[in-house]
Amino acid sequence: MPQITPSQTVPRTASATVISAHNLTKTYGSFNAVDGISFEVPAGESFGLLGPNGAGKSTTMKMIGGVSSRTSGDLAIMGLDPDRYGPEVRAHLGVVPQQDNLDEDLRVRDNLLAYGRYFGLPKSYLGPKADELLEFAQLTDKAKARVDSLSGGMKRRLTIARSLINDPKILLLDEPTTGLDPQARHILWDRLFRLKEAGVTLILTTHYMDEAEQLCDRLVVVDKGRIMAEGSPAALIREHSTREVLELRFGSERNTTVAGELEGIGERLETLPDRVLIYANDGEAALEAVSARGLRPITSLVRRSSLEDVFLRLTGRSLVD
């Protein structure tokens, strides 16, 4: 694989802030899609916005990308206001939209060449760059293929390759793996991790907890346009959950009634429609305590705490609601 080293990447230092938002707000009539959020992203970081559909993640990405103006608050991308300097900001951004918008009438390689022309890049640069990006995306053997013949995972990798044609400083990824099968997701994660290693700043929106844990150095949990928590995935789990979770299923008709008999086991109890969650530092010990009370669940599972548990604690609902 060729070395992906964007020539315009900002050096990875603690002092280099490439995105700064303060009290950022976006209002549609009386609806606050983004409600006064603040965050900063240093160069080279992989930063995530985690939340359910409708939380305000995509709206925030559109404001960062300079395609949607903010209602109020301050926003700077590489020191520039995207509302005032939209073209200058967008020239240094790579954008991977939620839905692939590849040109179905062009071949795979031609998609990269045509997109590069929008940035005014010369043919002498675009040819070698397109070949490099196809190799990076593992699509070299598909260079002359029609786009509509590609699988969903291949189309997603081509969309990412296209977003890198201008050597962006920041790569915006809106729900990058939605609809992909597990194998395609892991291949895509590998490509994104390589970009991160090369120093590209990644801004990622997702409602997949495992994706956020895999890719993000730091993230904000967003719900109803507001930031509920901020930190690294591990720090958020330590702060808002326990080390392990015991999942118990007694049947949809019994979960709620049995929950009362589980009080006092573990540190916290959560009753969901399909299961009961017991948060404990030792899940096996919690399961033994359940058995000692004469309770026999249909199924039981001890697992480590996840970001979805954090979201349940903060909002009382699932990430995929």
From TrEMBL:
GO terms for biological process: response to antibiotic. The keyword Nucleotide-binding applies. Keywords: Antibiotic resistance, ATP-binding, Cell membrane, Membrane, Nucleotide-binding, Translocase, Transport. Residues 19-249 form the ABC transporter domain. It holds the Pfam family ABC_tran. Its main location: membrane. This is ABC transporter ATP-binding protein. It is a peripheral membrane protein. It is found in: Cell membrane. SUPFAM superfamilies: P-loop containing nucleoside triphosphate hydrolases. GO terms for molecular function: ATP binding; ATP hydrolysis activity. It comes from Arthrobacter jiangjiafuii. GO terms for cellular component: plasma membrane. The lineage of its organism: Bacteria, Bacillati, Actinomycetota, Actinomycetes, Micrococcales. Belongs to the ABC transporter superfamily.
